[in-house]
Each structure stands twice: as structure tokens, then as C-alpha cells.
Amino acid sequence: MEIQVEQYKQLVAEIGNLVVNGRENAARQVNTILVMTYWEIGRYIVEFEQKGYERAEYGSQLLDRLSRDLTLLYGKGFSRSNMLYMRKLYVFFPKRETLSHKLTWSHYFEILKSDSDLEVLFYAKQSEREKWSVRELKRQMKSLLFHRLALSTDKEGVLKLANEGHEVQEPEDLLKDPFVLEFLNIPEKQIYLESDLEERLISNLQQFLLELGKGFAFIARQYRMSIGGKHFRLDLLFYHRILKCFVLIDLKKGEIDHNDIGQMNLYLNYFKKEEATEGDNEPVGILLGAYKDHILVEYATSSITNKVLLAKYQLYLPDKRQLEKALNKLLETE
């Protein structure tokens, strides 16, 4: 019988899907087995130490000897640093049920570099929630995402953030203060225009979306609005699929002032009337500037019913010691 072309193409496609899914499932299973195996190795090491056969110190000779002997017996994968992090994996996650099957050993290797239990829990939860690659995880840790989110809440909020991750439920959850845009590679003291900032954000859109967080979908730049015979342009327009609303972002290279807030309020009113459709929630405006005056913000936004949010950005990675000091002070408060 003559093979029907369309049916044959469908057959090839269906077999192809099976192959791809099979390979993905196999990779996930291998990863799960690897993580669980390393967790068990960590458990053996800790139990060996607890029985008094070796002091539980990172500087002890146990890990050196294990690394050397296991490498001779089984090959690569048993460097001293790997052995150290296998031990840490068990110490931080004593219940194996708390390990994620979606995270690789490379994810856990990076996560366990964190300085506190709270950070470890947060980055594990958030990596799983937002499906970060290892490269994305490294960037978020380097930009101190946990500290930046934690300092915008209270002590109870910090503990919730660590145990549950960052979940966007309200427009205010969109903010990080500051947003870190080090990936633009603009020197701190270099003179630049708002258009330069916008151009670089578009050129590094994938990195910018990672910094903005889960749920943002890019729609347009320099979005044109005609209001009362005048033309206005919004720097960046997004839609947030979790909040189900438009998110308008205007960039300011200097300090945000009351005129910027009034203009954003105008844009939001326009979007409510002209752009929002059935099922959309009210739009959210974000003014992203290098500086903001908290008193001015309070007075300028007090009578506005629209959701106008103000946040700072910085072109360099934050000072870890400074943020850790502020976070520790927050956690010490009752």
C-alpha cells in the first residue's frame, strides 16, 4: 500500500514526541538519582562523624581522605569540594522528602554556598518555582535577591519568604528595592540618557525579565498614546499574566519627581479606559528611577487611586555586608 504523506508525517511527529519526552524523563530520573545518592553520601559522612570516628569540622582530614580514596575507586565526582557539599546537602535538608526533583546537583551546589539557612531555603524554593537555570540562579544570588526582597517586609515576612519563596499576589509584590541592572554594563559615573537606558534594557531583555520576576510578558517599547490631541509615549509596556493586568514602566535617569507621578497617573487612566479588556485587572504603573524622595512620594501619591509604584534602580551589584547588616537588624526586632 502506498504510504499516505500526511499520515506518515504525523507518525514521525508522534514518535519524535515520544523520543524527546523519553529523553527528558530519563535525564530527570538520572538527576533525581544523583541528588539522592549525594544526599545519602552526606548522611553517611555526618553519621560517621557523630559516632565519634571523626570530629565534625570542615578542616578535618576525613573529607580529604574520602575524596582521594573514592576518586581512585570510582573516578571523577568526588573532589573535596564535592564531598563538602554532599555533607552540607544532608545538613541543610535532613529530610530527603524536602529535596526537589526539579533541581539538579549543580543547583544545590550553588544554593549551598549561601551564608544562612534562610537563604538556602529561599533559593531552593524560588529556583523550583521559577524554573531557573543554574546560570539564572547564580545571577539572582549574586544580586542578593533574597536580601532585597526580605528588606521590603517584616520579620514574619522574611521567614515566610524563606519557607515559601516569593509569590506575586499583589501589585506591590512586583517591586524590588532596588532593581539591580548590572547586566547593562553602564559604569556608575558614566553620563547616559534615558533613551540609552531603555535601549540597553531592550538589548538585554532576557536578563531584564529575570530581574523583573516571574509573570512579565513584554509587549512594546515607546508605546504611543493619543490623549486630547496630544501624543505621549510610554517607555516600556508589559502584561503580567499572574496579576492579569498591564504593567507600565517609565524610566528616569535621575530622581523621580511629582510630575513623573502625575504623568504615570494619566497613562493609567488611559489604559483603564482605552486598552483594558474584559478579564483585565486595573493597570499598574512603575516609575523606575535612580533616586526617590520618600516624603515627596508620600504626598504625591496619597490621593491617587491608581496603583503607581516607585522604585530605585542601580547599575552595580549591591554591597552584601551592608544588606546583611540591615537584614540582621530586621530579624533581631520583635
Automatic annotation (TrEMBL):
Pfam families: DUF1016_N (PF17761), YhcG_C (PF06250). It comes from the Bacteria. One of its GO terms (molecular function) is endonuclease activity. Gene3D superfamilies: 3.40.1350.10. Keywords: Endonuclease, Hydrolase, Nuclease. Residues 14-148 form the YhcG N-terminal domain. Residues 173-327 form the YhcG PDDEXK nuclease domain. This is Putative nuclease of restriction endonuclease-like (RecB) superfamily. The lineage of its organism: Bacteria, Pseudomonadati, Bacteroidota, Chitinophagia, Chitinophagales.
